[in-house]
Design goal:
The complex is a heterodimer of chains A (about 450) and B (about 280).
Chain A lengths: L2 H10 L2 H20 L10 H30 L7 H4 L5 E6 L3 H15 L4 E3 L5 E7 L3 H25 L1 E8 L3 E7 L5 E17 L5 E12 L2 E9 L4 E3 L2 E21 L4 E8 L4 E2 L5 E9 L8 E8 L7 E6 L9 E2 L2 E20 L3 H20 L3 E10 L4 E10 L3 H37 L1
Antiparallel strand pairs in A: 1-19, 2-3, 3-18, 4-5, 4-17, 5-6, 6-7, 7-8, 9-10, 10-11, 10-17, 12-13, 13-14, 14-15, 16-17, 18-19
Helix pairs in contact in A: 2-3, 3-6, 5-8, 6-7
Chain B lengths: L2 H24 L3 H31 L10 H23 L6 H16 L18 H32 L16 H33 L8 H22 L5 H24 L10
Classes of the chains: A alpha+beta (about 450), B mainly alpha (about 280).
Chain lengths: ~450, ~280
């Protein structure tokens, strides 16, 4: 690796970068919520850049630390002695009259109870052993980090291979066209969805109780599935999900009367919603392009499009007010327009979505929660013991030391407890033996 | 007996609980602190009964749902969760002198819920968007997180006070002498942040799963979502700084307090100042 690459890598693995990115992302998010139209920030290149940098930071840290962790976990325990143990910040020394072999038994039981069984190692003159638990806990932090990547990959998969859009269906109508969220393109589904009925119900208090659409899936003209969807209970078919998102009134057809002031003629027409109808005796067509239940507070209105069928670009478009027949703007082309009847019906607004990445996101979430919990609530604990005779003082010396990868305060308490237990048991042992010996003597007598 | 009567009683009990904790700590008089703990337990029992009764009352009205659906109910639950978390913590560390802030927050949440004109205590039916089993999981996890952060705020404040106003931060004398040592306070705060972080993570995740089944998208940068993410980022920074950069003490305490500021904004600020998909929490 060249020198610059090295410097770049060192920057990428630094905690400073992590903290800076956390705080920058937080600051950008604050701006995104408080500024007017600030939410554009979340879709901006530089916000994505920050996220990408965080990913790079994660990957680099994992590349840097995971091999070290694995090496540490695979390293066999090497030779150690009591002098080495005294260098640990958490250590203890006990001297006892109890002979070495008996001391060893006491230590083995006590450590097994506190942490786990001891494994002995060869050591000259002394009996040395160690005990450990929770090795795997050192891997959890890496799993937590990688699960964040899994979530982000899931998001990417969803945005690349999925789509999001909506479909408005009037009662009784069916469609296979999804208007995509970008508002520009439409997508054709390999099946049709029909809305049989839309229901709206209220509580006695006036609040909405339920929005329900009775939907049918139609493949090649045959009904294959029917389901009533509610908010929180969507319909899923072939990996595509239909959510109850909106509802409203829409136009079925409008009966209108055209008046030509110059020719003094009146023409009656019936216009089905969004279908062009030729005006009798002319080369022009009329169509209802849109309908609003309450147009800017003045009641129902239809949007008429007028023009020649082969020159759609030159169509004239006007809003005609249904409930204000005398409004001077109720005119299109050379005609005055009055709507004699507007027949409306319910429509349901469905949100249509396909997201093949969502399972990666869920998997990442579950992994993340578990790994965060285990990272902080488990630890790699290790304890070393050396027992050796002190020939001069005719005593047995127990030296022990311990270390925990996390929650050191808790481990320290455990360590102190172990020390007390050992002291007590080693003190009691000669007494117990004396009592037992007395009992035996009495029995013999 | 009605739920509103029990919940009013709770408000007063939390008030006295706060007074007992405060006076017990200031006058260094353990029996007062013991009284505070007992008052806290009684308040919790009364509040639990109140919540259960409200639940039942909603069924009697014909639109039964768990009382976690609006501003009033969430405030009551927040107050309950803060006290539960604090009392469990007190029982584990076997020290009673840290209850002032948690008891105060529990009292303030109840008082705000009961007396604010902006918070309607009437039982409301569930709007269609809230009719989901995820309601329980999402609200409970979020509020356990928020409540742990509230306790953490108290611990950080006491830590900073101990550092600043006591000539000997670990000493046993002076006005703050009854508190645990500064190093212990620091460790307690870290434990509380961890606990809260875990629950907040689960709260965000259950929220995402729910949003996906209700609105068809697990993340839409709705203000409430975004602010919970901001809170998450702040506490993630706390954990990384403390574990990897060895930040301890004042900087971590300040960051934890800022984190709780974000919690408050996520809860109140977003409801009252920003509009978004979570607007039903306003009522």
């Amino acid at each position: 690796m060249s020198k610059e690459k090295n410097a770049l890598f060192r920057l990428l693995i630094s905690v400073k970068l992590t903290l800076t990115l956390f705080l920058l992302l937080a600051a950008a998010s604050v701006l995104g919520t408080v500024l007017p139209q600030g939410s554009a920030i979340f879709y901006s290149v530089w916000f994505k850049g920050l996220l990408l940098l965080l990913c790079a930071n994660l990957v680099a840290c994992t590349l840097d630390r995971l091999p070290k962790t694995i090496r540490l976990l695979n390293k066999p325990e090497t030779h150690f002695d009591s002098r080495k143990l005294l260098k640990f910040s958490l250590n203890g020394v006990l001297a006892t009259e109890v002979p070495l072999e008996k001391t060893r038994q006491v230590v083995q039981t006590a450590v097994k109870e506190a942490l786990g069984p001891l494994s002995a190692l060869e050591s000259n003159g002394a009996w040395c052993a160690f005990s450990e638990s929770g090795r795997w806990s050192r891997l959890m932090v890496h799993i937590a980090h990688l699960s964040v990547l899994v979530v982000l990959v899931g998001v990417l998969v969803g945005s690349l291979l999925g789509f999001k859009g909506n479909m408005n269906l009037s009662q009784g109508d069916s469609s296979s066209t999804v208007m995509l969220a970008d508002g520009q393109r439409a997508l054709k589904l390999p099946f049709r969805v029909r809305c049989d009925k839309f229901h709206l119900s209220f509580y006695p208090t006036g609040q909405p109780r339920e929005y329900r659409s009775d939907l049918e899936v139609i493949v090649n003209g045959k009904k294959v599935l029917s389901k009533a969807i509610l908010v929180n209970h969507p319909l899923v078919y072939q990996g595509i999900t239909f959510y109850q998102a909106q509802y409203g009134r829409t136009l079925k057809q409008a009966a209108i009367q055209l008046t030509d002031p110059a020719a003094k003629t009146k023409i009656d027409m019936v216009l089905p919603f969004q279908q062009a109808v030729k005006i009798p005796g002319t080369r022009h067509v009329l169509a209802v392009a849109d309908y609003q239940d309450d147009f800017m507070g003045v009641g129902r209105a239809i949007e008429l499009a007028y023009g020649k069928l082969d020159q759609q670009k030159d169509f004239t478009v006007r809003w005609i007010l249904v409930d204000q027949p005398s409004f001077h703007g109720n005119a299109i082309g050379k005609y005055r327009v009055s709507v004699t009847k507007a027949q409306t019906t319910w429509f349901t607004g469905l949100e249509v979505k396909k997201d093949p990445g969502v399972w990666l996101v869920w998997g990442g979430f579950i992994l993340l929660t578990l790994a965060i919990g285990l990272t902080f609530y488990s630890s790699h604990k290790k304890l070393w013991v050396c027992i050796e005779p002190d020939e001069k003082k005719k005593k047995t010396i127990v030296t022990f030391a311990g270390r925990a990868s996390r929650n050191t305060q808790v481990f320290e308490e455990k360590f102190k407890e172990l020390r007390t237990t050992l002291e007590m048991r080693l003190k009691e042992l000669p007494l117990q033996e004396e009592i037992e010996a007395n009992k035996k003597n009495e029995g013999l007598r | 007996m009605t739920s509103s009567l029990l919940l009013s009683l709770t408000t007063f009990l939390f008030f006295f609980c706060t007074l007992f904790y405060l006076s017990g700590t200031i006058f260094r008089y353990p029996p007062l602190l013991k009284t505070a703990t007992i008052t806290g337990i009684i308040a919790l029992l009364v509040q639990t009964a109140g919540i259960a009764l409200r639940w039942r009352e909603s069924y009697l009205k014909g639109y039964g749902h768990i009382p976690l659906a609006d501003m009033y109910e969430s405030l009551v639950f927040a107050s309950w969760a803060i006290m539960v978390i604090y009392l469990l913590f007190e029982w584990r560390i076997k020290q009673r002198a840290l209850g002032v802030f948690p008891a105060l927050f529990s009292f303030l949440a109840m008082a705000y819920a009961s007396f604010s004109k902006g918070v309607d205590s009437k039982i409301q039916p569930l709007v269609p968007a809230l009719k989901s089993n995820w309601l329980i999981a999402h609200v409970v996890t979020c509020f356990l997180g928020y409540s742990a952060f509230a306790v953490s705020f108290g611990l950080s404040a006491l830590y900073l006070a101990r550092k600043k106003y006591a000539s000997d931060p670990d000493g046993q004398t002076g006005l703050l002498g009854f508190l645990p040592k500064a190093s212990q306070l620091e460790w307690f705060n870290y434990q509380m942040v961890l606990f809260g972080f875990l629950w907040l993570s689960m709260g965000i995740i259950t929220g995402a799963v729910w949003a996906n089944s209700a609105w068809g998208t697990y993340w839409s940068w709705d203000p409430k979502e975004t602010w919970s993410l901001i809170t998450w980022l702040i506490y993630a920074a706390v954990l990384h700084a403390r574990n990897l950069k060895g930040w301890k003490g004042e900087r971590v305490a300040w960051l934890s307090m800022i984190g709780f500021g974000c919690v408050l904004f996520t809860y109140f600020g977003v409801n009252f100042l920003l509009s978004g998909l979570h607007s039903y929490a306003k009522q």
